[in-house]
Amino acid sequence: MSGVSVKTVSRALNGEPYVSQETAQRVWTAAAQLGFRLNVLARELRSGAASTTVGLLIGDLANPFWSGIARGVEREISRRGLRLITASTDEDPALEWSLTKDMLDRRVRALLVVPTTGDHSYLEADRRQGLTVVYLDRPPSHVLADVILLDNAGGARAAADHLLSYGHRRIAVIGDVPRLNTHRERLAGFRSAMERAGVTEWEQYLRTESHDAHAAEADTRSLMAMSTPPTALFTMNNWNTTGALRVLKDWPNDGSAPALIGFDDLDLGDVVNVSVIEHDPEEMGRLAAVTALARIDGDEGPPRSVVMPTHLVARGSGERPPRSSSS
Amino acid sequence: MSGVSVKTVSRALNGEPYVSQETAQRVWTAAAQLGFRLNVLARELRSGAASTTVGLLIGDLANPFWSGIARGVEREISRRGLRLITASTDEDPALEWSLTKDMLDRRVRALLVVPTTGDHSYLEADRRQGLTVVYLDRPPSHVLADVILLDNAGGARAAADHLLSYGHRRIAVIGDVPRLNTHRERLAGFRSAMERAGVTEWEQYLRTESHDAHAAEADTRSLMAMSTPPTALFTMNNWNTTGALRVLKDWPNDGSAPALIGFDDLDLGDVVNVSVIEHDPEEMGRLAAVTALARIDGDEGPPRSVVMPTHLVARGSGERPPRSSSS
DNA sequence: CTGAAAGCGCTAACAG
DNA sequence: CTGTTAGCGCTTTCAG
């Protein structure tokens, strides 16, 4: 390039010691003029070299829950100079599979996955070869691996107990597709609280398959149109809550409005006075990243399973009493 | 590996023609057993080979506006098998610069940037060498390049005109740091509408430097505590609007609540009846990706500048009349 | 249909 | 302090 060997260029540009100030300077200016940059791909191709990317597979980057996770991961790994490759699976197992394969072909240093349903044993071979995988939000199927979860059952139980304590019995549940583990866990938690209280009326008010706000809105309307409508609603994710709020927004102020508790907080949750089961997506992403980094650093301990707490935030909607309680 | 040459393996695994069914089959099973995968890094290192990653630099992945952009970009590039490397700049020009350099070292196929302020001519050398760069949301400084913008001035003007038409004169403006082009454009649009209407009272109600909801909340409180408070508010981004809504939420229902229009829509915007200047972040990301892909495909036309429309969505908060208008 | 050789750009190891 | 060599894993080119 300017009379020096490639190795000297490498040393200078990487700020390694054992290069004279003068030579380094010359290399720097020459590189700047020629627009020369070190090629990270080549660097990472070398034998024994580790890649500096981390793969993240989430459901949908545009959902605040998942973008929060992504932000937490990014924040943590960037402190180590690692970059984030993100992809949305749309909750499609086949897409998750092909994206996973793509990430591995790219030799990501670690793979963080919010798993959709499906068998995840297809990663076992790679894990044995040293691939770091951390699952988020939902446990993988047929696999023992590091995983960061929410206390889904506990949160749902807290929601149910809260509503029960205000005298509600006819409590409707609106949730996502039952295929998702989070959905099932939340439903199980809810169910256990209801059973403990000896309440059975709610079963007829269970609505699933609502994957977006629109569907949840329709569910809410049909529930409230029943001859004996529910006196309370438990919406099991952020978009389900959004749908319910759209219906309740214009509800007549005659005391007939159902109580509402939603899983996941909302950006304007405090403004609309919606009671929620709150948690911290960004911290969840951060923890997953920390776990992955520990594995990269050689942590060989048994698979870790972290369950993050949830908190009931009472803001009003969950504290409305039933209008005409039948028990 | 199993008696075949590397080239045959390459051919088989890439599904190239001119490999016998039988051989291909053998390679496939052997690869599966050994957990062998093609190395994309090596592939992309080859001379003339193009990388299959696209870099995206945004302010903060956790802000729905930017995660929407990211989603739009991802959706579009994934159709071509390209993956997204995302990084948050926190609106820090120095960080933007170092992240940019990092992306280039990784040989991203294209770089999409929401620029913070600063001189962006440092990318010119790389652009001349064929690097595809598309700017989003804000124009770069001192550079002529492809850029996808919002009609910031037009949107702000529409907000001002709307409030003016309802009789407001004392209109407060709450905005982000003036350093940001979007802020200045919106303010300029607002100002032009006010000037055309011959209104000057608003200048004393201008508040900037509110980069989050918390600061905007404080601004709103102090504004409303003035001896002659504003009768309307124009909040210039999503988080500023959120802050204002927190204050207005518990405002006495005596007709003294200020009108409110916010720039950017909010997830629960329809539930809280907030009037907004709405636009489509995901489409913006998609357009940027489309532009970048066209350049990659050889489009050599002059730099393209797309201005995306905004729409005023009247939901109630922007249609409140002033309590005791002074004009 | 299959294989051998070359080279992408980098850095570790080993000389000067 | 600086240079040489080798090899990471892939695919293009050219020969079988």
Write structural notes for this entry.
2 copies of one chain form a homodimer. By secondary structure, chain A is an alpha/beta fold. Chain A folds into 3 domains: 6-38, no CATH class; 46-150 and 280-309, Response regulator (Rossmann fold, 3-Layer(aba) Sandwich), CATH 3.40.50.2300; 152-279 and 312-319, Response regulator (Rossmann fold, 3-Layer(aba) Sandwich), CATH 3.40.50. Helix content of chain A is 40%, strand content 16%. Chain A has a 6-stranded parallel β-sheet with strand order 2-1-3-4-5-11, sandwiched between helices. In chain A, strands 7-6-8-9-10-12 form a 6-stranded mixed β-sheet, with helices on both faces. In chain A, helix 7 packs parallel to helix 8. Chain A is elongated and about 90 Å long. The interface between A and B is large, with 50 and 50 residues. Chain A binds a DNA duplex (16 and 16 nucleotides) through residues 4-8, 10-11, 14, 17-20, 23, 38-49.
Short description:
2 copies of one chain form a homodimer. With 327 residues, the first copy, chain A, is an alpha/beta fold.
In terms of topology, how is this protein built?
2 copies of one chain form a homodimer.
Chain A: H1 6-13, H2 21-34, H3 40-45, E1 53-58, H4 64-78, E2 83-88, H5 93-105, E3 110-113, H6 124-128, E4 132-136, E5 146-150, H7 152-165, E6 171-174, H8 181-196, E7 206-207, H9 213-224, E8 232-235, H10 238-248, E9 259-263, E10 275-278, H11 281-296, E11 305-308, E12 311-313
Parallel strand pairs in A: 1-2, 1-3, 3-4, 4-5, 5-11, 6-7, 6-8, 8-9, 9-10
Antiparallel strand pairs in A: 10-12
Helix pairs in contact in A: 1-2, 4-11, 7-8, 9-10
The first copy, chain A, binds a DNA duplex (16 and 16 nucleotides) through helix 1 and helix 3.
